[in-house]
Amino acid sequence: MDPSIAPHELALQIEEGRIVTSAALEEKPALTSPTATVISGKTLVPDRGLSRAWLAWTAKFKKALLARAERRTSKNTVRKLEDYPLGYPMVSCYLDSDEQFMIYRRFGTLHARLLLHAQDELRQMETQLLRMDKRDNMTEDGRDFLMSRENDDAREVMPGRESRKQLIERTKQKTIEYGQLLVQAQTLVAMNKPAERDQTSVVNFIENEGPLMEKDRQFIYHLEDLVTLRNGREHTWLDSAVESTLRWIRCKPIEENNSISSSPKYDKGIPETREKTENRTIRYYTRSRVNLLVTMIITLLILVLLVVPIYVLYRLTVKAGNNAADTVCIGVLLICTLIFSAALSLFTKAKRHEILAAAAG
User: Fold this and answer.
1) Which DSSP category does 1 fall into?
2) Running DSSP on this structure, what letter comes out for residue 17?
3) Contact 316, 305 (CB under 8 A)
4) What count of other Cβ atoms lies within 10 Å of the Cβ of residue 188?
5) How far apart are CA 48 and CA 42, in angstroms?
6) Residues ≥6 apart with Cβ < 8 Å to 226
7) 291 or 130: whose pLDDT is higher?
């Protein structure tokens, strides 16, 4: 320090910080690490031991995942598309390789024709049985046969004529056949229609690979007659929109194959999916990851629908007047109820009475 400075000026400069004393230098904390952080006058130095432990744990976790994937690859058998000959064998393998490709015709017109034919046969048998009952009702012996099944079965019938027992047995078989056709037709009608993009995927495979003759591949073009075996419990509008968006942006975390756009960074996913084919033009998507993303979106939506109305109503009641607040609160409740009902209808398979009960609650 300059000895020519007056004592009172020296004290003033020290107070303003223009001169730093040796005592102040001793009190100033030293930064022992370039990554150290000073908070409230204290130096926080990262724990290098903890960082090394974290890196070791993550490396061990990745190694365990890779080992698990290798075990799954060695134990599980995957049907590979290239192992099947070109033709119906390859098409069968492709349709079974993913649930979205399980598309078949339901033959609705043929079912209607069979039902009409069986229905008219039953009508004819019904008329024949009624005519036989009326004929027996005209005589005393015939009425006895109508009142006793055992006697009617034991009666002698003229050659070339059918007994009531034979007619009933034939009607029974036809009724069972007709009922099975009805139930089968009802089941097929209740099945889900395939999404347009799924049908397009199968069409592209058949046209690009050429495994079928022209007449054999016509089934896939009957869009109105196609059904999918895919479970439609949660496959709603939201699922379709998410899948379409992920495909459009080429989301690599859900792509599990050897496609051109695949990256080694994502090759450690589900090996059973990646081993289905070596064709670079065919892409398979991990269904579990898509479902997880949809679940997260629905959960976030539910959280928003629960929290936002409460916050809005609270702010309205605090700032607005009583009369105005009541009117606006009613409007907010109506709008939120409408949005909630629309979300249930669009994003889930809820039925009408379930949506009504949820909105009323």
Assistant:
1) -
2) T
3) no
4) 16
5) 18
6) 103, 104, 105, 106, 193, 194, 199, 220
7) 130
Closest CA to 222 of 193, 201, 189, 251: 193
User: Three-state DSSP class for 35?
Assistant: coil
What SS3 class is residue 194?
Answer: coil
Nearest-angstrom CA–CA distance, 175 and 192: 28
Question: Among all chains, which residue has been given the structure tokens 């009583």?
Answer: 322
Distance CA 10, CA 65 (A): 68
3-21 burial string, b = 16+ CB within 10 Å, else e? eeeeeeeeeeeeeeeeeee
What whole-number distance in Å separates Cα of residue 309 and Cα of residue 271? 45
Q: Which residue has the tokens 């049907």?
A: 79
Sign of CA dihedral 57, 63, 68, 69: positive
Residues 343 and 301: their CA atoms lie apart, in Å, by 9
Question: Where do the DSSP E strands lie in the chain?
Answer: 37-39, 42-44, 103-105, 226-228
Residues 6+ apart with CB under 8 A from 42: 29
Asked if 84 contacts 90 with a C-beta cutoff of 8 angstroms, the reply is yes
Q: Is the pLDDT of residue 93 over 80?
A: yes
Name residue, tokens 């009952």.
133
Per DSSP, 192 falls in state B
Contacts 24+ apart (CB under 8 A), 210-217: 210/86, 211/86, 211/87, 211/88, 211/90, 211/91, 212/87, 212/88, 212/91, 216/88
Write the Ramachandran bin of 250: left for phi over 0, alpha for psi from -120 to 50, otherwise beta: left
List, for residues 102-113, the tens digit of each pLDDT value: 999 999 999 999
* Residue 125, C-beta contacts closer than 8 angstroms, at least 6 positions apart: 167, 170, 171, 174
Quick: pLDDT tens for 143-175: 888 888 888 888 877 787 888 888 999 999 999
SS3 of residue 148 by DSSP: coil
Task: State the Cα–Cα distance between residues 197 and 93, nearest whole angstrom.
Answer: 19
pLDDT digits (tens, 9 = 90+) for 1-59: 545 555 545 554 555 555 545 444 444 444 444 444 444 454 444 556 667 777 777 77
